[in-house]
Amino acid sequence: MTVLLALQAELTTATSRLLATAASLSDADLAAPSLLPGWTRGHVLAHVTQNADSHLNLLTWAKTGVKIPQYASYEARTAAIEAAAAHPAARHLADLADGAARLAAAVRDLPQDRWSALVEGMRPPEHPAWYLLVRRLREIELHHVDLAAGYGPADWPEPFVLRELHDCRACWPHANSTVSEITLKNPSGEITAGWPGLGSGPAVEGAPADMLAWLTGRSRGEGVTLVPEGQSFTPEGAGLPEPPPWLTMPAPADLPTTPPKDYP
To answer: Where is the Mycothiol-dependent maleylpyruvate isomerase metal-binding domain (predicted)?
Structure first.
């Protein structure tokens, strides 16, 4: 038993939630701004749809051993999103569902031994194919929030939050850090994890989902507080620096090649 089945189940559920939200949006809704600067909700759905095809490219690389880039280029990716952003709601929903179904079929059909094959996104490092499931989940969960359509960081499943925080720390940009330490706390205020030695800046603390939302730019720091020396309380978000650069690497550099039993 490996993590593959659990990740596939998570991906199926996350995709179903996103499709339900997409089905609730009208043409006017999709023309309205998303939480991403310069993008409408239509841009977000176009990107998530096309991201499924990009993951299909990498799964084909893993299956055949023939290198296929995730996207032809950054410019081609941007142009494709712009071309599809203004599609009507029904077209967006159909395309999103079709892409998700084709990706799910490719995941089911990938031979077990090919999940260890190494692939690479638009940036290094290369990573084993099993981690594509983690990357696709990241796209769906973060961009679901970006739609600003009723799904927020508080709705993220706990396994997703903890996995993304783990990988965020594993890929931490120490040279460009804006905080020195992160403390994670549960709803009762008990410390569940501490990340010392992150670099320069103040220490911050908060609940896992709040911290992930701030680190990924999906919040202004609600639920995250400074821990200044000599003070016991700082209002949420008050005085927070900008979060450090997020996702400077698409995957941790030290992933196990063979799908592990659990991840992280």
So the answer is: 12-148
